Amino acid sequence: MTTGEPGQQRTDRSPWNWLLVLPIVLPLLTFLYNADEPRLLGFPLFYWLQIAFIVVGVVTTTIVYRMTK
């Protein structure tokens, strides 16, 4: 891959990329959401924690993008 400047190679070996492992591994830890309580606005833990996982994914992707840009 190259950047817009000729003669300069782009590298994807930034340590910030390791942060992208978090939104992949976090939903795989089923013991985190294997419960009915607590409830948030009447929704069981499973449902609102899934939304939280999406937010974590968006935030980590944004951080990695900005730090490696």
From TrEMBL:
Pfam families: DUF3311
Keyword Transmembrane included in the entry's annotation: yes
The UniProt record lists the keyword Membrane: yes
InterPro entries: DUF3311 (IPR021741)
Keywords from the named record: Membrane, Transmembrane, Transmembrane helix
Stretches that traverse the bilayer: 16-33, 45-65
Protein name (database record): DUF3311 domain-containing protein
Origin species: Nonomuraea cypriaca
